[in-house]
Amino acid sequence: MSKINPKRILIIQLRRIGDVLMCTPAIRALRKRFPESFISFLTEKESEPLLRFNPYLNEKIILDRKKYSHFFYLLKTIRKLRKENFDLAIDFFGNPRSAYFTFLSGARTRVGFDLPRRRVLYNILASRGTSSEYAALSRLKALKPLGIEYDDFKLDFFLSDEARSFAEQFFQKENLNTENLVISVSPTSRRRFNFYSLDRYAQICDWFIQEFAAKIVLVWGPGEEKVVQDVSSKMRNKPIISPHTPSLLELGAVLERCDLHIGNDNGTKHIATAVGKPTFTIYGPNSPLSWTFPDPRRHGYIKKEVDCPNCENEKHNCESLECLDCSVGEVKTKIKEFLNSLSELKDNLTLSLKRRGN
Which regions in the chain score pLDDT beneath 70? Predict the structure, then answer.
């Protein structure tokens, strides 16, 4: 199978920001292996900005998940896929819908994860990966039967000049172009089990301002503005709330200009990773090894280990959420350890400490 030479390739990854970004090393590897092939990516419109300027793709096929219940919309999508005459389809998502899209695309070679009730729709099966393996790496490993080698798994997010101009104007308006440490903080999540205490976030932000003379930028997405306003209202020091960002491109540009990102296990963290920023994540039940870029010098985390059957079964529906019960002191201790490993931030930290007389 390593001798395959497809003319048209379809990659499928529906849903979330982090999942789509985890595919970008595989996109890069496919382009390197098949430089003349036409490569198309099927995803949902919420994630489209992540791929808009990706130079390794020829086409993005964008779905509206609100129309999935419409039979004729799905039929139209399948007809479009078949007209494209793909000869290789790769399903990185692995849910029933993406598996059927893969099968019904008409591609002769179909790659997917070895999962119950879906495996029959593929003719090349890949291991799903483990909770101790970075999610981008598991996608790259799925390409091995195609003879694809990989030498790195850096995430890609290509920003536009317009997005960077948006961020520059914001930084100028808020006087953020200084020697102070600028930290983006994302206290939000679409999932309850990833939602760390807002009161504790406020204390951690105040500590950064008092200890390091840092400037805190609270970032948010659609429907999340009240969350960052709540954190701001609980703080003793005034943070900066980022403006409404028209798309993920502008959010990425704002994160790119910051020195460090701190937040929940959410899509914003993965965007910060993709634009090259160090990150520190407060984890709930998910595996940090699966969702943290494997460079502990630049990407740190804290996770409270608890014996919870809901986590073992990946249901994450318990009421207590003990896994998120990290004290402010525990988080600060972990962050201090992490900052000590961040050689690129030491100059900024030294300047901040000197100004505070520490």
Answer: 1-2, 307-320, 343-358
CATH 3.40.50.2000 domain span(s) along the chain: 8-146, 161-356
- The CA distance from 337 to 290, in Å, is 21
Using an 8 Å Cβ cutoff, are 248 and 275 in contact? Answer: no
| Residue 276 identity (one-letter amino acid) | G
The one-character DSSP state at 95 is S
CB 164 within 8 A of CB 292: no
pLDDT, position 345: 63
- N residues, the chain: 358
Q: What is the pLDDT of residue 323?
A: 77
- Going by their DSSP bridges, the two strands 260-264 and 59-63 should be labelled as unpaired
Q: Does domain 8-146 correspond to CATH entry 3.30.450.20?
A: no
pTM here?
0.93
- The answer to whether the beta carbons of residues 142 and 301 sit under 8 Å apart is no
pLDDT at position 54 is 99
Q: What is the pLDDT of residue 310?
A: 56
Superfamily for the 161-356 domain: Glycogen Phosphorylase B; (3.40.50.2000)
* One-letter identity of residue 57: L
Reference 24, options 185, 184, 191, 150; nearest CA is: 150
CA pair distance 79, 148, nearest whole angstrom: 29
**By C-alpha distance, which of 51, 49, 50, 21 is closest to 39?**
51
CB atoms within 10 A of CB 115: 17
Residue 270 CA to residue 197 CA, distance in Å, equals 21
Report residue 300: phi and psi, to 5°.
-110, 170
| pLDDT recorded at residue 357 | 47
> How far is the C-alpha of 108 from the C-alpha of 106, rounded, in Å?
6
Beta bridge partners of 299: 279
